[in-house]
């Protein structure tokens, strides 16, 4: 009896997450493809990589690096991005996964050394790139469910 209840609750959670994600037809991208998130061979590498896809609400990005020290740092403005300003939300764990639950434009760079100046920077545009003017409560609930599901690998930006 007890185990059956457990199973039903577990199924409900998995089904809910599936529905929420399914509604957005979400994809998971490995940033930079096979190269991952490192100092690229040329300064337009990540711009070329992002231009290959149109990103939507619910999409996730895995920042993958294995050797050396990098960060995935999100800065707030285009000016900070252009300047390689090395302050913002700094994610240091290799393999970190970021999921976006709203349209918006996000500026990422590596805050180590001169990596950003060498082109380790990327603009991710979700949908039309325009953030909502207020936070939608239902998306917050979806993020909470997803957070349970992906545990520590997922970092959510709800701006
Ligand atoms: C940048 O490097 C990538 C991978 O080597 C290459 O495909 C692309 O053509 C290069 N772009 C420029 C502008 O050199
Ligand atoms: C991350 O990089 C490592 C080493 O380059 C590679 O083996 C692994 O498949 C990559 N992971 C993803 C999700 O691409
Ligand atoms: C960007 O750099 C310019 C020139 O160094 C500086 O005047 C400006 O304040 C910087 N802006 C930001 C947001 O860091
Ligand atoms: C997000 O952007 C897309 C365009 O890519 C648009 O169709 C959609 O209405 C936008 N969603 C919100 C909630 O503004
Ligand atoms: Cu770096």
TrEMBL record:
Leader peptide range in chain numbering: 1-25
Gene3D superfamilies named among the record's database cross-references: Cupredoxins - blue copper proteins
Key words, A-Z: Membrane, Signal, Transmembrane, Transmembrane helix
Pfam families in UniProt: Cu_bind_like
Keyword Transmembrane helix in record: yes
Zinc-finger is among the record's keywords: no
Organism: Populus deltoides (Eastern poplar)
GO cellular component: plasma membrane
Protein name in UniProt: Phytocyanin domain-containing protein
Domain named Phytocyanin: residues: 27-128
Gene Ontology terms, MF aspect: electron transfer activity
InterPro entries from the UniProt entry: Cupredoxin, Phytocyanin-like, Phytocyanin_dom
């Amino acid at each position: 009896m007890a185990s059956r209840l457990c199973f039903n609750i577990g199924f409900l959670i998995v089904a809910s997450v599936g529905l929420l994600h399914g509604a957005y037809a979400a994809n998971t991208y490995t940033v930079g493809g096979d190269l991952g998130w490192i100092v690229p061979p040329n300064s337009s590498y990540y711009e070329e990589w992002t231009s290959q896809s149109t990103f939507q609400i619910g999409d996730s990005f895995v920042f993958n690096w294995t050797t050396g020290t990098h960060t995935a740092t999100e800065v707030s403005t285009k000016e900070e991005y252009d300047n390689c300003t090395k302050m913002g939300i700094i994610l240091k764990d290799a393999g970190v996964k970021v999921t976006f639950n709203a349209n918006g434009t996000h500026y990422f760079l590596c805050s180590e050394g001169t990596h950003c100046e060498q082109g380790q920077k990327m603009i991710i545009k979700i949908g039309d790139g325009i953030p909502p003017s207020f936070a939608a409560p239902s998306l917050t609930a979806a993020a909470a469910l997803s957070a349970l599901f992906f545990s520590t690998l997922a970092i959510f930006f709800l701006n």
